[in-house]
Design a protein that fits this description.
alpha/beta; 8 strands
Amino acid sequence: MIQSEQPFQRKIRSFVMRAARMTDGQKKSLERNWAEFGLSKATGPLDLTETFGRDADTVLEIGFGMGDSLVDMALAAPDKNFIGIEVHLPGVGRMLNRTESEGLTNIRCYKDDAVEVLSDCIADASLSTVQLFFPDPWHKKKHHKRRIVQPEFAQLIRRKLKTGGTFHLATDWENYAEHMLEVMDAAEGFENTAGQDHYLPERPAHRPVTKFEKRGQKLGHGVWDLIYQKTS
């Protein structure tokens, strides 16, 4: 059952819907593959065992971009289920195309608002991992309120994780990294696996390096990873 206690009522969205210029290949992939791999918030609570045809650890990634890292992780961990959420359709189309070409069966995706999906579709204490890689940093100070990582959001993630499950965050904006660290270190029910006030010393081996990340590194951006474990 989806628990309805203390719902996360977000007033400000952390993303904007940009004009989606899809290639013919992305459009055809979306049309061809959505029935098999697509999920909809409108259908309500998700039964993971029924959806994947098995009982396995489930990883949920918020904002998978063009989907390369999500597909790479699903390839590397066939024993796990992966759910991706992305509102920009070119990325969804590309991800589905790779999922099809690689013959993967352990990926499903939503093209809906992640907070709404978590609140309305994902059962409490059902996820082993939640991933948030390179979210929009909203780097202007007046836009910091739009950042998805906020105290209320941390508690939404906490409710959806199993005890012992992890929330993995990564960003290439130092100011946002500091914000993530401050919010998550203060979040009830979580423990920083690198130690209070510390980032991970290096990129975890299970997180692939994306083209987006490589581009940022060429521009001199650092990358900061954080992994928090749900303790209660």
